[in-house]
Design a protein that fits this description.
Low-confidence stretches: 243-257, 278-298
Distance between the termini: 16 Å
Number of strands: 8
Number of domains: 3
Radius of gyration: 21 Å
Length: 298
């Protein structure tokens, strides 16, 4: 998946993705890249469980692991209109255009540029882009151009997805569809009476404090590749709670899983309905859903 996304979504050279993104994982696989078909097939060394194949499905979708259905069925899915958006105007200020705002003179921008250059030169840092925004304006941007990265490169979101999900939830709050103190409507947490997870609120989720047992370590990103059968939110929602999870939820901390919280929160955000007794305008509901549709898992 990482090779497919890096090569066909970000447009980076194979060597850059292999050495910087895959890390030790790629050392344990043989990977074949089909540039004409836009796919990557990976086989784990000395294992009969693989190969696994990832295919590029368009700029609006990205790459998908062929798992749980045939490649033919996957390619036959209706993915809607994926035509490219019109380019932004280079003379209009960001975020409506590409232009940068005037930099505040009291800031030592030479020191900032030197720090960014040093970060780009650091081989273990793997920094590809740095942007600085302040009060809704973009003031600075720099890209590691020798690796093929520019302002138009679609880099993997990784943990920035947490911030994007929080922004979508904020839009739902603004539209009256969500209150951060409400319990998150997660079906898996309301099956058994007394399940402490049923008390988890949106605020708990946004603070990464749901009490779900999961720790980010080697091998714990299974949902991205093979274990979740395309449903990362369901995968994490069904994980057991950590010891003392109920106390952790009440205290707003502990036992948290950053990636798991984000997957479950974005699914719930995409399915948000007007709250009982809320003053949400009927015209705001489709607008909020449209904003959140891109973060719903398959």
């Amino acid at each position: 998946m990482m090779l497919c996304s890096g090569i066909f979504v970000a447009g980076l050279p194979f060597e850059v993705v292999y050495e910087e993104d895959c890390d030790f994982v790629c050392q344990a696989i043989n990977a074949t890249v089909d540039y004409e078909e836009r796919s990557v097939t990976a086989r784990l060394l000395n294992s009969g469980d693989w190969p696994y194949k990832s295919i590029w499905r368009g700029d609006g979708i990205g790459c998908t692991v062929v798992d749980g259905m045939t490649e033919e069925e996957l390619r036959a899915q209706d993915i809607g209109d994926q035509s490219a958006l019109p380019p932004l105007n280079d003379t209009v200020l960001w975020p409506l255009g590409n232009a940068l705002a005037e930099r505040p003179p009291e800031v030592d921008w030479a020191a900032i540029e030197a720090a960014v250059e040093a970060d780009f030169a650091c081989e273990r840092c793997n920094t590809r882009a740095v942007t600085i925004s302040w009060r809704g304006q973009l003031l600075f941007e720099a890209y590691r151009t020798e690796t093929g990265v520019s302002k138009d490169t679609r880099l993997l979101g990784w943990s920035s997805t947490k911030s994007v999900t929080s922004a979508f939830v904020g839009l739902l709050v603004h539209d009256g569809l969500v209150d951060v103190n409400d319990r998150v409507p997660v079906p898996e947490w309301n099956v058994e009476p007394g399940d402490p997870r049923a008390a988890v609120t949106w605020k708990n989720m946004l603070q990464m404090a749901s009490g779900q047992l999961w720790r980010e370590a080697s091998g714990d990103v299974r949902c991205l590749f093979i274990a979740a059968e395309g449903d990362c939110a369901g995968y994490y929602a069904n994980q057991r709670t950590s010891a003392g999870a109920e106390a952790a939820v009440c205290a707003g901390g502990g036992g948290a899983t950053a990636d798991g919280n984000t997957h479950v929160a974005r699914r719930s955000a995409g399915e948000a309905q007007p709250r009982s007794g809320s003053r949400a305008r009927t015209t705001s509901t489709p607008r909020a859903r449209r904003r959140c549709s891109c973060v719903r898992p398959r």
